[in-house]
Amino acid sequence: MPGMRRREFITLLGGAAAGWPLAARAQQGERLRRIGVLAGGALASDADTRERNAAFAQGLQQLGWIEGRNVQIDYRYGLGKADKVREYAAELVGLQPDVLVVSGASALAPLLHETSTLPIVFVSVADPVGAGFVETMARPGGNATGFIQFEYSLSGKWLELVKEIAPSVTRVAVLRDPAVTAGVGQFAVIQSVASSIGLDVGPVNLRDAGDIERAVTALARSPNGALVVTASALSLVHSTLILELAARHRLPAIYPRRSFVAAGGLISYGFDALDQVRRAAGYVDRILKGEKPADLPVQAPTKYELVINLKTAKALGLIVPDTLLARADEVIE
Question: Which of 96, 252, 276, 299 is least crowded, fewest Cβ atoms below 10 Å from its Cβ?
Answer without folding.
Answer: 96
